[in-house]
Amino acid sequence: MLGYIARRLLWAVATVVLTACFAYGLIRLLRPETYGGGENLFVGTWHDVDRAVFQLTLGDPELREMWLEGLWADVFLQAGGAISAVVLGVAGGIWCASRPRTRSARALESFAMFFLCTPPYVLALGMLLLFEPTFGLVKLPLFFEVHVYRPPLEDPWSFFRSMLVPWLVVGAPLGAVILRLTAGLTIDAMGEHWVRTARAKGLARTRVVRKHAAPSGYATIASLFGASAPILVMNIVLVEVVFSVPGFFRHLRRARPERRRGRQGHRHPHDPGDLDLGGRADRAPEPDRRPRDRPPGPADPLGRTADGLSPAGQARVARGPMSRAAVLLLICLLALAAPACGGTDELRERGEALRERAREARDRAERSADRVVERVRAALDDLERAVPQATSDEQAPARGDERLEDYLTHVLRSVDGYWTRTLRQSGLEEPRVSFLWIPPGRGARTGCGAVADENAAFYCPTDDTIFVGEELAADILRGTGRTFPGERAGYGRAQGDFGLAYVIAHEYAHNVQQELGLARVDPRYGVEPLELQADCMAGLWGNSVYREGKLKPGDVEEAISTVLAAGDFDTSNPQHHGTPDERRAAWLLGYRSGDPQRCADASGV
Known about the structure:
MetI-like fold, 3 domains, 3-stranded mixed beta sheet
């Protein structure tokens, strides 16, 4: 970070010096007669740059005095305008993104568009015409009174009330752009996976926007702020004239007629005299250069002393180190506000490298296009041969049908076969579990205290038995059930034969956890880690079915839809099983990897 700031400062100083060298060098090159000749171009240019940039005199102590007098006001005005633009723009954008399409958000966006389209000079003058305490339509003397500026250390309250409105006017156009950009980037980020995860955990939308969605756009906003530094400088020039902020540009307008009057008696040797109507040149009279005795006191009505400066001017010139500090501070603000500036050669080299890489990538893509097409066709042919076509015999059976019990038993044996092979390969004992399918209208007592009825679906470790109600199984097969919490919240739908198979595989996974000694509940997290791990283990079985070529079209979609429907948002409940997105991610982790070791990370603990 310190290295970045140092580079920005060096670029700012180099930009100011090189710009001054170019400007003064070009004038000396094109108009050498203005300087009388005889002086080397480079030496003379450096002499001009030294007077303008480092000494701040331009050959005139009065101009230096006026520059130093208004420099701090310019620094404060620029800093306050930049801060107000960023803070209010980002805050307004987050407000609009938290309340999209509401009346308050639309009203705020309309105000931002107004400030963006209104020129700062017109906005400043209009505010004075409306609220200035002497001639305004509605007199508000607190913050709209001009000519009350005081340095912050001399009178902080007068400084604040004279600068508040100018700060807001200076930063209004940039703040409006930042507001629109923040709102747009934040709303776009609401669809990202990390934001959807935060929403699935039940966080308030305002907190999700502020903590998760909005920060993703801060880098873009910083780039916009850096590129908009000239807008702030232009607004300062206009606003300080309207509100009488004693900055350098306001004093520059006052200095111009004084400079013209001061030069009437000191004409350049090569300047022509004023021509009268007859074409005769009238030369200005030579000034009396004889030394005069000055009284010891301030004989000049303005109180100027022998050096031509007022006592206040002498004090300001004596504050040279502080004024140079102000110059350095202004350069620092410009450097930090312009991260997009500087480094032209580096950016050009990066651009060339990116274009070269893009050309190489395009060439590689064109060369491999035919190979990719052939691979896709071969993969599709393999899938078509591996996936059996559904027949009328494979239609979902109804509740109470013997085919329903046969299907449940068939799935359970398939899951049992997968885990038997997997545990044997790891040198572990094969799993053993009992099962009971509960017919409609019936029930069974369990060792876990709960009664297994026709809508049951759970594993009881005391009985080492999986209980599934045929009523629930039939509803899942037909897609007519509405008992799952995620489905009631609008996530997924428990449906299909493979959705029912997921339920069986999930409950069998609890049996495997019990036999491997993994079924330990941590009071800090509740049962959620075990449930997510069981989802992942169910996905492992789904991967084995896929590898055997037994999946039908739509089976994976049915499983994912059922997994989503099984999620819940009761995060404060120790029996919370995981949000819909968390459970889907866990199942997909097992299905996509097919690696049992990956399910150790599925719980997220």
